[in-house]
């Protein structure tokens, strides 16, 4: 568990050529490398050099319509993270998988397998799928509504956890003399029959090194936050200013508390978009350069998708047509991001073109554009002011922007005693300071 | 395609501590390593030293009831093969995935991703799931019958192939100057609505290095063979003698021919259980040693599962109760194996104990127990006599038995001009001498 002294937790948001939507057009990036393992190995090594807690890989089950002008995520999380596991030794590996379009048995098994392969370095970012078009890659039924998806997610996660616990520690005996390979008294069926799933169990993979991979969540709707407070050990969130960061942090810790959990069992990690320069001017120049590379047609498409209103015919200097936008509670998926960006447009009275540029890099996340000391200042403020337990880092471009962060900002944080200088443990639970869940015996896995 | 001179194709059946059911009890094996990546890396390196075509990983979605006395397969194929891909450079990686308990979108995507990660080294062993208990890990419905599973498999595979072709070669443009990342004229929806699946597409991974990963199949029922003749590029099979090997080989090539395919487009690869010794006596002694390590309770359980008759109370010296066994056409899953072992018991009038020992190593596959020259002789006979295009190698124990095969039998085969001395290409299609499928344009992916 957490010692008296808090330390920051830092994940890298492993996003193709970087978090800025035009990063792939920058001279320093290689957008063709996003399907090559070498590229991710290089990023993994840089992140491990920086002693980061983990790599975090987002995911969707649909080709974005914006792919004409926007680099892909590229590869599938289980396969990519397993490959990265083989060429790294300490960094955590957090993969995204949807509870709406998967089976609990497969998900429990793949994460257990990945946890063995990586020596206990995995986490599961639980999503319920926000994309309405993704639904049609899995049948002819529309995306279930928000509440329904979260009810399914609740049961899904309970089944997965029970499958992980269906092997007790020590069930694998492998006693050559007696010929007993597994102790059947320590392997338990679930015989689960619920509203969404019937799963007999047990799992066909021995208990994972971490007992259970770390559970991560990023929902920011009411349903999403309740769910996270109940099950998540780390929460990723988009908060674009310090005050809202503090409010969210307090809210999540309170919610966890009300679920009977210690606030320490839930790490709150806002996204942080970073542009690092040796001088402030250099950082701002890089941000301006990236801004110049945005493709207006893409920006219009991105806002249209977010706002569920077709803006593609609008001139860039027209004001954002706030009166046409739907109410937040009509949004089924990505609701938090919708509210955040809609608020930004309303508050600052932005034109469409301005909103595109304002959100092209940070996309609604907090942004730190400046020198290593300035970035470290901002991170320290959020961390000490209880707006964050750490950050989900979103370098403007990669691998260059990541290398700059690791080689320039990390030493600043280390010098201030805010971040580890060496890994102290081996598993993701070690890095996060989270306990390894105990087993629960035969009756315990009966839900 | 194949040049005038035929060469053998050799896959390693990547089976935990080896193919002999008691291999895990042998002093030279480490049954605890089956959940450790290091173990598979070591095997991958040995296999690559031997210039083998591929590693083949079988899979099931259920914990075998026999796990009390029998080492597990251990890890999940996509995660394990991706990790092995990262530490090998040439060897092919064939993973098993069921069409009965998966979604085509996920399977297409994971194999496409694995193909990128490995630089074009993947193959999909298509199974329809034979285990009746596996069904209950995915709902409360019984395993669909054989014919129904194959109807679903037919459509499943067509959808997966269309998803692989939903990106044409060259669709990923990544033109920094124009801001065009993907050429939408080369990315195609499927809009598929069939009896089993509705899948909109396109895939969210660019076209794989091999165009399509290699399709492998191992069904030996009538439905299975028809399916393989239509879609498979390699067929794994259990044939326990040369004559039945020849008959199966001819049958499969004829079937492929009747489907309008060249016989060269379908590799027939029987399993070959190997026990290597520097002398014949040494090999036989090792086989005897392994036989002594079999656990009778496990053997009885294994035969009970195969025969669908409870033999656990029977004495080992009782004859196999042939009169109690079901008819082959009542067997739903693993029917080929059932017939083969039932025939063996009938033909040779075996006791239960004898049948257990006879099948503990080879489990119904051809067996070669002897010196490197003797094993090479047998392989040459099968290969030249058109009983095999190569073999799915099943070393008695691993990694030792594999290393013996690679270091002693492979040079024999190379000296005889039967097997490659160096990899000539990079992809699994290169190794198998199979062409890279062309794309098929927008209309082509409409099934």
From TrEMBL, chains A, B:
Secretion signal span: none
Key words, A-Z: Flavoprotein, FMN, Monooxygenase, Oxidoreductase
InterPro entries: Diverse_substr_monoxygenases (IPR051260), Luciferase-like_dom (IPR011251), Luciferase-like_sf (IPR036661), NTA_MOA (IPR016215)
GO MF terms, alphabetically ordered: monooxygenase activity; oxidoreductase activity, acting on paired donors, with incorporation or reduction of molecular oxygen
Family matches, as SUPFAM superfamilies: Bacterial luciferase-like
Ranges for domain Luciferase-like: 26-382
Binding site for FMN: 59, 96, 146, 150, 220-221
Pfam families: Bac_luciferase
Family statement: Belongs to the NtaA/SnaA/DszA monooxygenase family.
Protein name: LLM class flavin-dependent oxidoreductase
């Amino acid at each position: 568990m957490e010692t008296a002294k808090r330390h920051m937790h830092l994940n890298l948001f492993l996003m193709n050529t970087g978090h800025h939507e035009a990063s792939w057009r920058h001279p320093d990036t290689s957008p063709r490398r996003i399907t090559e393992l070498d590229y991710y190995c290089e990023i993994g090594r840089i992140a491990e050099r920086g002693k980061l807690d983990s790599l975090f890989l987002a995911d969707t089950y649909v080709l974005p319509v914006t792919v004409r002008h926007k680099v892909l995520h590229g590869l599938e999380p289980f396969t990519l993270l397993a490959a990265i596991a083989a060429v790294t030794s300490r960094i955590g590996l957090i993969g995204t998988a949807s509870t709406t379009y998967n089976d609990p048995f497969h998900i429990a098994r793949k994460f257990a397998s990945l946890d063995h392969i990586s020596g206990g370095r995995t986490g599961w970012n639980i999503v319920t799928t926000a994309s309405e078009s993704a639904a049609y890659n899995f049948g002819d039924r529309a995306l279930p509504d928000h509440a329904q998806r979260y009810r399914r997610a609740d049961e899904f996660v309970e089944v997965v956890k029970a499958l992980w616990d269906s092997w007790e520690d020590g069930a694998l005996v492998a006693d050559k003399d007696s010929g007993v390979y597994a102790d059947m008294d320590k392997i338990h069926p679930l015989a689960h029959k619920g509203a969404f799933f019937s799963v007999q169990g047990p799992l066909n993979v021995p208990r994972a090194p971490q007992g259970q991979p770390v559970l991560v969540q990023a929902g920011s709707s009411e349903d999403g936050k309740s769910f996270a407070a109940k099950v998540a050990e780390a929460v990723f969130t988009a908060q674009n200013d310090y005050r809202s960061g503090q409010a969210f942090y307090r809210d999540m810790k309170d919610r966890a508390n009300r679920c009977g959990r210690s606030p320490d069992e839930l790490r709150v990690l806002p996204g942080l978009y970073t542009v690092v320069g040796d001088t402030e001017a250099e950082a701002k120049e890089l941000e301006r350069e990236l801004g110049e590379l945005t493709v207006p047609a893409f920006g219009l498409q991105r806002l249209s998708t977010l706002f569920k209103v077709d803006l593609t015919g609008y001139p860039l200097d027209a004001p954002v047509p706030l009166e046409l936008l739907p109410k937040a509670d009509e949004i089924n998926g990505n609701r938090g991001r919708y509210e955040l960006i809609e608020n930004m447009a309303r508050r600052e009275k932005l034109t469409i073109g301005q909103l595109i540029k304002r959100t092209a890099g940070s996309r609604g996340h907090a942004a730190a554009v400046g020198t290593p000391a300035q970035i470290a200042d901002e991170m320290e403020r959020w961390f000490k002011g209880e707006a964050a337990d750490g950050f989900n880092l979103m370098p403007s471009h990669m691998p260059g922007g990541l290398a700059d962060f690791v080689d320039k900002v990390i030493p600043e944080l280390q010098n201030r005693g805010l971040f580890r200088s060496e890994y102290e443990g081996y598993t993701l639970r070690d890095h996060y300071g989270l306990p390894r869940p105990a087993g629960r015996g035969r009756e315990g896995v009966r839900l």
